[in-house]
């Protein structure tokens, strides 16, 4: 039997306590109903009777048949990561013949508890030692099967090493011991969603809500899934349920406001951000988002005050510095904008958003040399952003280097095939250069992406006022 089938099939569900590893637990009469959730910490479940923990998982898993398929698909990949002997140990067959290899820095495993091993594993992962991280985290969850943070860290390492299916098996193992841990249900749902298994993800979110109706992040993530699948009404209902049934969360208000902005309900978004600030008045990101909302409706002074509030709470917040700098640049205060961009770069030297914004400012101020230096720094940091390559091309256009600009637009389209702005600006370049056939072809591609249109359009559409200019 593979570890995948052991992890999930209710018939073989065992007690969560090692001393009961061979005892079969009968399915309770009403296995689909969850018992009352015990009080617990954020990431781990307080101790309950072994049979109750198993019944919790059996009840939930029985209602989620799609999980069986996920576990079966993931079993082989997981075995490659952990190995046959570790699999047998997880099944309670035999103890491993070999001890886990010690990390490069000598560590006395006998004196470490689960949390120590978790931190050791994280440090190993930061240093690029994936194998040691895997060993430390396996030991951590072995010592304390109810350490939810350790299970999540282990799933992350396994995912990077062997893919999301293997990570699914780790999370299923975790849920057998922690059926009421909403964070684990959420993690498994997100792993399934990233594999485009939307129905499975939806069922897992529902199971998590059943396990812990007050876990607001579940509603937030579930709503995002529905919005990504064009279920706007369902997404809005989930956001509302999260506010009504869950615990207050600044992140939930932020995500909900972003959703309302994307669906065109700007006033509702503003109200939600204000509600979030009432709950978390020192949250930098809520103030920043409220500033963006105020600026979108043309309230410049209100936006400036919001950005300043964000910087009062966190003076080195790069997104707030970038937003305020761009506002000052748009309002004709270039010196103030440069000061803010410089502060931001000092705080976050690799923030390409700040480098891009500063480059745009200098290009508008007719300082193409400095603009070029800034955007070159940006593309060296992130060469996979079509927006950066498009701006770089516009800088080269200012130097009248048409071949170089053309090559940069081509690069922008290569890294962002769906970037209609890059195609539109490239079309304008070719039109000015007299390459009308190529210009028309590029413009047709741009319109097809932007509007989902199949027809052809005149190159004169390049003169439309809604063409992108802020690059």
List the helices and strands and how they pair.
Layout: H1 3-8, H2 50-62, H3 66-82, H4 84-90, H5 114-126, H6 130-143, H7 148-162, H8 164-177, H9 182-194, H10 198-211, H11 216-228, H12 232-245, H13 250-262, H14 266-279, H15 284-296, H16 300-313, H17 318-330, H18 334-347, H19 352-364, H20 368-381, H21 386-398, H22 402-415, H23 420-432, H24 436-451
Helix pairs in contact: 3-8, 5-6, 5-7, 6-7, 7-8, 8-9, 9-10, 9-11, 10-11, 11-12, 11-13, 12-13, 13-14, 13-15, 14-15, 15-16, 15-17, 16-17, 17-18, 17-19, 18-19, 19-20, 19-21, 20-21, 21-22, 21-23, 22-23, 23-24
Keywords:
mainly alpha, Serine Threonine Protein Phosphatase 5, Tetratricopeptide repeat, 24 helices, disordered N terminus
Detailed description of the structure:
- There is one protein chain.
- The chain has 24 helices and no strands.
- With 471 residues, the chain is mostly helical.
- Among the domains are: 146 residues, Tetratricopeptide repeat domain (Serine Threonine Protein Phosphatase 5, Tetratricopeptide repeat), CATH 1.25.40; 63 residues, no CATH class.
- The longest helix is centred in the N-terminal third of the chain and has 17 residues.
- The chain is globular and about 70 Å long.
Structural class: mainly alpha
User: In CATH, what is the homologous superfamily of the domain at 3-28 and 46-96 and 111-179?
Assistant: Tetratricopeptide repeat domain
User: Biggest sheet, open or closed, and with what strands and sense?
Assistant: none
Top-tier CATH class of the domain at 3-28 and 46-96 and 111-179: Mainly Alpha
Kindly provide the radius of gyration, computed on alpha-carbon positions and rounded to a whole number of angstroms. Answer: 27 Å
The unreliable regions are: 1-58, 68-103, 453-471
Strand content: under 5%
Arithmetic mean of pLDDT: 79
CATH fold naming of the domain at 3-28 and 46-96 and 111-179 = Serine Threonine Protein Phosphatase 5, Tetratricopeptide repeat
What is the CATH architecture term of the domain at 3-28 and 46-96 and 111-179? Alpha Horseshoe
- What is the general shape? globular
Number-wise, the strands total 0
Please tally the helical runs, counting DSSP H or I stretches of 4 or more residues.
Answer: 24
Distance between the termini: 58 Å
Task: Give the fraction of residues assigned to helices.
Answer: 55-70%
Query: What is the N-to-C order of secondary-structure elements (H for helix, E for strand)?
Result: HHHHHHHHHHHHHHHHHHHHHHHH
